[in-house]
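Recap from last week: sequence in, structure out.
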Amino acid sequence: MAAEYAYNYDYGSPAVRENQAAPKREAQKRPEFKKYNSPLAERLAEERAATRKLLKIAAFLSAVIVVFAFAVNSFYQRDSAKRLLTEAENNYMLCQSENKELHAKLTALASAENIDRYAVEKLGLVKVTADKEVYLTAETGNKTIYFQGEADVKK
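Predicted structure tokens:
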């Protein structure tokens, strides 16, 4: 039966050779040292902590100010864009009404009588009368009317 459990034993260990448990070590006690706190070091550490706290507060406030500035700027741009849009819409409405008026005037002036009157009064053109007409017969048989006083033939 001892042979069955032989592989469980470490035959090289002194505890197995003497059938004793291995000796236990006693924990070593380290001497406790008192920590000396310098008042100057404590004051410097407190100042550093206060400085860090102030820097964190300043960084947070500057971030809040930047976000507020972006918000105000976006509201200003939105309002100015709305104002420009309103002005453009008003200008568009005025241009549409002016376009309708001009179209009505153009329609009124587009008649043949108005065109003749405009040509005579505004442009200073002269109506062709029978005494100012000259008929030329070309070899091709076509007739061309030229005003009196023109010497050369234009094609």
